[in-house]
Amino acid sequence: MEKLSLPRGRFLSLEPFAVMGIVNATPDSFHAASRHQARDAARDAALAMIAEGADVIDVGGESTRPGSSYIDESEELGRVIPAIEAIRRESDIPISVDTRKAAVWKAALEAGADILNDISALRDSPALAPLAAAAGAPVILMHMKGEPATMQNAPYYDDCLGEVSRFLLDAAARAEAAGLPREAIVLDPGIGFGKRNEDNLALLSGLSSLRDLGYPLLVGLSRKGFIGALTGKPIEERLAGSLGAAAAAWCRGARLFRVHDVAQTRDLLLLVSTILAPRQSAASAGD
C-alpha cells in the first residue's frame, strides 16, 4: 500500500486516495471562499474540512495565483504559523505547508507541520530539502514554468508532457541528493502554473506516464481556469467540473488531491475507486 512516512512516527495512506483540504491564510487567493487570513478563521475552516473527511490540511500564506508576487518572509510567517499552531492544538491531522521559503518551512515544522508543498520544486531555496530530510518530512515537488507573476504570459511548450516529466525527474533527483528518500517524494504536474489550457489537458490525459516515473502524484485541479474555459462557468460554479477532472485524474494514477471542496471530492473518489479498483485489479491479474 502506497503511503508517506511523516514526522513523529505517523503515516499518510495514499490508497485508494487522500484528500488535501486547502486553507489559504491569505487575502488574495483566486477562490475567495478559501481565504481565511485570521488565525481562528483558518482553524475553523480546517476543522470543518476534517469533519468532512480531509486526510491532510494544506496551509499557505502566499498566494501563487497568476499575477501574484512574493511577499515578505515576516508577513508569510505571521500568516502561516498562527494558523498551523491553532490547527495543531485541535487535531493531529497531517498538515502540509505551501511555501518556498526555508525560514517559513523551519518555523512550520516547529509549529507541527508534517509535509512541505513547494511550488518551486526546491529551486527557490536549496535549504528546504535538508530541513525536510532531517525532520523525516515528505516533500511535494511541483512543475511551474516561470514565476507566478508572469507564468501565464504566453507560456509555450514543444512537448508539454515530456518537458514536465524531465523537470520533475530532475527535481526528484535534487531532493534525493539532498538526503530525502525516494519514498518521501511526491510529484505535482502543476496544472495551471505556466500552462495553456491545451497543456493542462495534455498533462491530465498523460498522467499515467507521469505516474510511471515511480513517485506518487498530487493534482491541484479544484476550480481552476481550464475548467472555466471548458465549461464557461465562473470560479463559484466550477464544482462539477472539478469533480469530473478529479475522477479522470484518479483513473490515470493520481492519488493525492488538493481541493477546496473536501466532502464532495471524497464522495466522488470513494465511488470511483470502489467501482473501478476491482476491475483494475482483475485486469492486472490477467496480464
Description:
The structure is a single chain. The chain has helices at residues 39-51, 73-90, 102-111, 128-135, 160-177, 197-205, 207-211, 225-231, 239-251, 262-285; strands at residues 3-6, 10-13, 18-24, 56-60, 95-98, 115-118, 139-142, 185-188, 218-220, 256-259. Helix 1 (39-51) crosses helix 2, helix 3 runs parallel beside helix 4 (128-135) and helix 9 (239-251) runs parallel beside helix 10. It has 10 helices and 10 strands. The protein has one domain: TIM Barrel (Alpha-Beta Barrel), CATH 3.20.20.20. Strand 7, helix 5 and strand 8 (185-188) form a beta-alpha-beta unit.
Topology, element by element:
Blueprint: E1 3-6, E2 10-13, E3 18-24, H1 39-51, E4 56-60, H2 73-90, E5 95-98, H3 102-111, E6 115-118, H4 128-135, E7 139-142, H5 160-177, E8 185-188, H6 197-205, H7 207-211, E9 218-220, H8 225-231, H9 239-251, E10 256-259, H10 262-285
Parallel strand pairs: 3-4, 3-10, 4-5, 5-6, 6-7, 7-8, 9-10
Antiparallel strand pairs: 1-2
Helix pairs in contact: 1-2, 2-3, 3-4, 9-10
Strand order of the largest sheet: 8-7-6-5-4-3-10-9
Strand content: 5-15%
Looking at how many chains there are and whether they match, the oligomeric state comes to single chain
Radius of gyration computed on alpha carbons: 18 Å
How many helix segments?
10
CATH homologous superfamily assignment: Dihydropteroate synthase-like
Q: What structural class is derived from the secondary structure elements?
A: alpha/beta
Count of the separate structural domains: 1
Order of helices and strands: EEEHEHEHEHEHEHHEHHEH
Unreliable residue runs: none
What is the CATH class designation?
Alpha Beta
